[in-house]
Amino acid sequence: MIHLEKLTSDERRSGRYTFDPAAGSYFLTNFRSYEQASQNCSGLADEPKIGFWRRRRIFVAMYVLDDQLRVFLNGHTYSWPGPFRATRTKPCSEARRFMISREGDILENILYRSKDHVGFPGVEAVDMFAQIEARVRTPASVARAIFWWRALAAGQQSITDEFMAEVEAHVAKITREPSKP
């Protein structure tokens, strides 16, 4: 997990973001068009989006870097081990779609359902990440998906660093190799 800079509401309100592969981070830019903002994003999964949820602006993007699947959400990056591969697909009127694949499994971009808004409350985020893990189908991802869904059923409302650490501790415990005599 990588902690990136937290952006103020004023910074979110103006301009777009662009990705710097060397720094592994997003930065605010003055670009006003998709073509300008995406020129440094070649090979990544998708253009980052700014949307609204309950009158709050949020910034989300899903992409692949160093063979890892990463979801950037309001200053935090959550990552899944790879190898993953991102493939751009043809833009459509409602959303810019792409696919991410790992070992034959296809993960579709499910963040963007509208060209104007991103419905991304905490509960949907927990459920979305569980779906991603379930589709990967490795022992660790299955254990992780089950934990996400149990947490969701127990009322987990948000994704925090502490919650992510709890998830990974659970997965490490479940998938730990038996000790050799």
3D structure, described in words:
The protein has 181 residues and is an alpha+beta fold. The protein has a domain at 1-84. It has five helices and ten strands. The chain has a five-stranded antiparallel β-sheet with strand order 1-7-6-5-4. The chain has a three-stranded antiparallel β-sheet with strand order 8-9-10. α3 runs antiparallel to α4 (139-153) and α4 packs across α5. The radius of gyration is 17 Å and the shape is globular. The termini are far apart. Residues 1-16, 28-54, 88-99 and 104-121 have low confidence and may be disordered.
Structure, briefly:
With 181 residues, this protein is of the alpha+beta class. The chain has 5 helices and 10 strands, in the order E-H-E-E-H-E-E-E-E-E-E-E-H-H-H.
**Beta-strand proportion:** 25-35%
Average pLDDT value?
Answer: 56
- Tell me the number of helical segments per DSSP (H or I, 4 or more residues long): 5
Level of helix content? 25-40%
From the spread of the alpha carbons, the general shape counts as globular
Beginning-to-end CA distance, first to last residue: 34 Å
Strand order of the largest sheet: 1-7-6-5-4
Instruction: List segments where confidence is low: pLDDT < 50 over at least 5 consecutive residues.
Output: 1-16, 28-54, 88-99, 104-121
Q: What class would the helix/strand composition place it in?
A: alpha+beta
Biggest sheet record: 5 strands, antiparallel
Secondary-structure element series? EHEEHEEEEEEEHHH
Radius of gyration: 17 Å
In total, the number of strands is 10
